[in-house]
Specification:
This protein has 281 residues and is of the alpha+beta class. The protein has a domain of 192 residues: 3-Layer(aba) Sandwich (Protein Transport Mog1p, Chain A). Helix content is 34%, strand content 25%. Strands 1, 2, 3, 4, 5, 6, 7, 8, 9 and 10 form a ten-stranded antiparallel sheet that branches. Strand 1 and strand 2 form a beta hairpin.
Length: 281
């Protein structure tokens, strides 16, 4: 009888253990989470696409890059940025690819899984690298190289989550902390939306040390600029509500004498302003 009870207790304990593991895995993989785009996730994606800077700290946008729709789908991207930037001093070029996604999607799409499938082999194994930011903070990143015949790419990647000081404010416009967790799926699970940044430089035309310097400078200048633009969103009045100077200080009505042509006859005529030049091509 005792052995029978002991057997049942063992089976019950095993069942509870399996159930606990299943539940934990379900939450970590968002298996039971609503897959529709939440209001916070959509808002974070729109902020990314609207606020991502075109120039910052000596870097300027050179051109927009076309993103592969299948790659975006695999990354679970609700919003994204894909751009090539050029340094005005060194002329170095760094491409930035950023996605806004759910924690599970953001954590699962990493270069060590993607680039080998595109014909690259791992050169320098990924490792953590702290990058000093222009505002005095540090960003945690991963970095490594991927190579194939005639090309070597240096890639940095990092995850942007809400700053701990603002995490209680249910606000997707909160300032971001940039981290490189060992187990991203666990570290990111409480976030409504995650920004994931890839900074990529082609080492084919640069030495390895130059590529590191340029990429670190790019990240160090970009992230504070992006955080400032996103965190300042709440303070900005919608364009439709902003008052123009004319609305605040309406022009004074002219007297009948001032409106007469004779009263304005001696005033010089100002030429019409020419339109701003547009870029060709």
């Amino acid at each position: 009888m005792k052995s029978s009870v002991s057997g049942w207790l063992t089976l019950a304990g095993a069942a509870v253990l399996v159930l606990g593991v299943t539940v934990a895995q379900g939450f970590l993989t968002e298996r039971w989470k609503d897959k529709s785009v939440s209001k916070d996730l959509q808002a974070a994606a729109e902020l990314l696409e609207e606020k991502f800077p075109k120039s910052f700290g000596g870097w300027e946008l050179e051109r927009e890059l076309e993103a592969d729709s299948k790659e975006l789908e695999r990354a679970g991207a609700v919003g994204h940025i894909s751009r090539l930037y050029r340094n005005t001093r060194s002329k170095a070029r760094v491409s930035a690819f950023v996605v806004c996604a759910r924690p599970h999607d953001a954590s699962g799409h990493t270069p060590d899984r993607c680039y080998p499938g595109a014909g690259f082999e791992i050169g320098e194994a990924e490792h953590r690298q702290k990058v000093p930011l222009a505002d005095g903070r540090e960003a945690e990143t991963f970095t490594g190289t991927f190579r194939k015949t005639g090309q070597t790419l240096r890639i940095f990647w990092t995850y942007g989550i809400r700053d701990e000081a603002e995490i209680d404010k249910a606000n997707v416009a909160a300032r971001r902390t940039w981290i490189a967790p060992q187990i991203a799926r666990i570290a990111l699970v409480q976030e409504p939306a995650v920004y994931k940044l890839y900074a990529i430089v082609d080492e084919t035309r640069l030495t390895s040390s130059q590529a590191m310097v340029e990429c670190e400078d790019f990240i160090g200048q970009l992230l504070p600029a992006l955080d400032t633009l996103i965190a300042g969103t709440d303070a900005e009045a919608p364009a439709s509500e902003a008052k123009s100077p004319q609305a605040e200080n309406p022009p004074k009505a002219q007297s009948p004498e001032a409106q007469r042509p004779e009263a304005r006859r001696d005033q010089p005529t100002r030429p019409a302003a020419s339109p701003e030049p547009t870029a060709a091509g």
